[in-house]
Amino acid sequence: MVDPIFTTLLTSSVVEAVATTIGDILGKFIDIYQESEASRHRLEEMAESSRLRLKELQQEHEYSIIKSLTDSKIKINEQQIIEHLRASYSIATHRAFRDINTEYATIL
Description:
single chain; mainly alpha; rod-shaped
């Protein structure tokens, strides 16, 4: 028959080996779970970053359109002012020549 001490030693050795193996396997499962959680968090952060960047680009585009329209309106207003000044200058010049001609005609 097998000695009880030997059986106890053998059993404790087997239990230790099995417990170590099970511990290693559980450790691997925990590592895999934590890696997948970290990966999921990274994907969520990337998605949020992409949403923020898209919103920023949309705001930049809207600002660009508004600025373009404002610049166009300013150019139109400038052109109208220039045309008004030309017309006023032309009228004032014609009056001045007419007055000079009238004065010149009365002097002669």
